[in-house]
Design a protein that fits this description.
This protein is an alpha/beta fold. It has 3 domains: 133 residues, Alpha-helical ferredoxin (Fumarate Reductase Iron-sulfur Protein, Chain B, domain 2, Orthogonal Bundle), CATH 1.10.1060.10; 162 residues, FAD/NAD(P)-binding domain; 168 residues, FAD/NAD(P)-binding domain. It contains 18 helices and 22 strands. The chain has a 5-stranded parallel β-sheet with strand order 7-6-5-8-22, sandwiched between helices. A 5-stranded parallel β-sheet has the order 10-18-11-12-13. Strands 14, 15, 16 and 17 form a 4-stranded antiparallel β-sheet that branches. Helix 14 links the parallel strand 11 and strand 12. Helix 3 packs across helix 4. The longest helix has 20 residues. The relative contact order is 0.14.
Amino acid sequence: MGKITGFMEYTREKAGERHPLTRLNDWKEYTTPFSAEKLRVQGARCMDCATPFCHIGMEIQGATSGCPVHNLIPEWNDLVYRGRWKEALDRLLKTNNFPEFTGRVCPAPCEGSCTLAISDPAVTIKNIEQAISDKAFENGWITPRIPAIRTGKKVAIVGSGPAGMAAADQLNQAGHSVTVYERDDRPGGLLMYGIPNMKLDKDVVERRIHLLEQEGIDFVTNTEVGKDLTAAELQAKFDAVILCTGAQKQRDLVIDGRKSKGIHFAMEYLTKATKSLLDSNFGDGQFINVEGKDVIVIGGGDTGADCVATALRQKCRSVIQFGKHPQLPIERAAENRWPAYPNVFTMDYAYKEAEAAFGEDPRQYSIQTKKIVADENGNVKELHTIQMEKLKDEEGRYYFKEIPGTEKVWPAQFVFIAIGFEGTEQPLLSQFGVRSVNQKVEAAYGEFKTNVEGVFAAGDARRGQSLIVWAINEGREVAQEVDKYLIG
């Protein structure tokens, strides 16, 4: 695919980024688009590899490898190289309902499984995907698709994140009447409030939601199923129900001083910041403001990085991110072979910004928080930590051991907990009467049926905390199963 010798002639390039110190003054997306010629060249690097692994969509060594929505990547790379953009869009939309989202916020497991990545930098798949969708919207190629017929069947979807939206899109196009319930004041789930503007501008999310509404999907906001509307009422009104509530129960930190003022879950911090930005450009004051404060983020993942970036834009005095694992290697470790996801050191957008603002990467590795200390008014004032050593026992299992003499005290007036999610919230599941295992809805992948007739589940509510591409995959798959349930 692409140019036969392109992968030998051209080097990998990524989309540009605005200067870190410039973008810290606003909340706009930090990336800048490729030129058409650069996109053509990057598409040309897609090699004729006979058996592409970029779209395998499976888990290897506990991590996603390849694209879970099975994008036809070599095909649309070739079409971009040849300048056939509209055909590239057609190929992309065959497998992915929302490429404008995945092209921005997916961690691109496809690139880790790119055949070229065995010996060279991978093809720039993610940036090309975003470029195709952006070009399509700019040129008016994506327009409302109004279903020609209606089946008379009605489906309720609880949760408007990527799984819920993908299921709604598929079922609506099949002719069913779909209503999506969202407890927040805007649809979009984590796409709206869990991912900051600088990674995913909310105009992009609202544009897609408006398109889905034009196509006939109803979004009902400010309505919490199980509270404002009972499970019984929903089941009586609809022919099928899909639970796409996500894994919103955040994992807490069990530690002395946890109840001190100034300690918040990461999602509370990010949600309030985005909502206040959208509602009033921060004029309402309804957000957690860390201006002039020392901030510590506990948790080394993407959500923690988003907290770092948000704190920087609020002009914090300092920001540090704690992670319990050692720093990743620059190159793949021997046990982390292709096509598994490459666990290697990278500089995310937030870390580049912190380095530009304060002169150093904000991440601290192999660190364990021992206790939190508050001042006389109950406000957090410092964290006490110790360094950890990651070791392997005789059976090959990893464990952590404290290193004596590495104790340290860190000043902090705000602490954000970003150590992941335990699973879905249980009260709603109890009201429906669906079974759960490890705080996830019990529904087999491929069938998505719960133990309750006519009630299905998909996305993070079923599989636990995961990637946007898995959410879209499950939304598409559950829609197919619901369609079979409704019409055979």
